[in-house]
Design a protein that fits this description.
By secondary structure, the chain is an alpha+beta fold. 26% of the residues lie in helices and 30% in strands. The strands form 2 sheets. Strands 1, 2, 3, 4, 5, 8, 9, 10, 11 and 12 form a 10-stranded mixed β-sheet that branches. Strands 6-7 form a two-stranded antiparallel ribbon. A hairpin with a 2-residue loop joins strand 9 and strand 10. It is globular, with a radius of gyration of 20 Å.
Length: 242
């Protein structure tokens, strides 16, 4: 829990006072939070939706699920007109870590996602909102190496990227996108196969979080990712009006 946010609530069976606990957690959360802003609960399991609803949380429309598969070595053959790189992270004098080409990544993500499911789910609509802001504590050398930037050799333009992060202690896909002009060429599949291959050295599985109805779901199923239970991605206690 943090002000205005609660994540990953779970109970160990046969504990059966979950609603009483949630009411107490809500009371603490409300006292911590800025009530001019909504209080948000994330990744609510199906059997908890009614608990959060009884406690005064409203569900949003998005339904998501975790998917995962074992890491594995693949022989990936890229098209000759593509250049493949891993992103680089630099640290400034204040200790802030950023992608060295964050503006390129932002432009690629903006072209890949704007107006689509993921942009709506993450509430992003402008180019500035797509500038990468991953927490440096949630990455490491292996994850950065297994992340992929795909450039068009003829134009020098970044046309696809897949960035990885830590989710708990496991490797996870933070973001994966391909700009419209380069879709249908298997690039997303190749980026995931490259990630699975490099991660094999250190991580047993790769996880990702996908929203129901996202076109990329078929890519994940075809690559052998196994779906978990469907979750309500977010529920909220609306902000108080002045």
């Amino acid at each position: 829990m943090a002000p205005n946010n609660i994540y990953h609530l779970f109970f160990i069976p046969p504990f059966n006072q979950s609603f009483e606990v949630l009411k107490l957690l809500k009371k603490i959360l409300v006292s911590w939070s800025d009530r001019t802003q909504a209080i948000k609960a994330f990744e609510i399991l199906p059997d908890q939706v009614h608990l959060f609803a009884k406690a005064g949380f409203w569900p949003v429309e998005f339904r998501c699920r975790w998917m995962q598969r074992p890491t594995e070595r693949f022989d990936v053959t890229w098209d000759d007109d593509l250049i493949i790189k891993s992103p680089q992270i630099t640290e400034d004098a204040t200790g802030t870590k950023r992608f060295t080409n964050e503006n390129e990544i932002a432009q690629c993500d903006f072209a890949s996602f704007v107006g689509g499911f993921e942009a709506v789910r993450r509430n992003k609509s402008s180019l500035e909102q797509f500038i990468p802001d991953e927490d440096p504590a949630l990455t490491n050398e292996t994850l950065t190496e297994a992340s992929t930037l795909v450039y068009d050799k003829n134009t020098g333009k970044l046309v696809a990227n897949c960035r990885l992060c830590l989710q708990d202690t496991e490797a996870a896909v933070y973001s994966i996108g391909v700009i419209p002009s380069h879709r249908g060429r298997g690039i997303a599949t190749y980026m995931l196969q490259r990630a699975l291959t490099i991660l094999k050295r250190k991580y047993p599985i790769l996880r990702l979080y996908v929203m129901e109805g996202n076109d990329a779901e078929s890519v994940y199923y075809n690559l052998g990712f196994i779906p978990g239970v469907q979750e309500v991605q977010q529920m909220i206690i609306p902000a108080e009006s002045n």
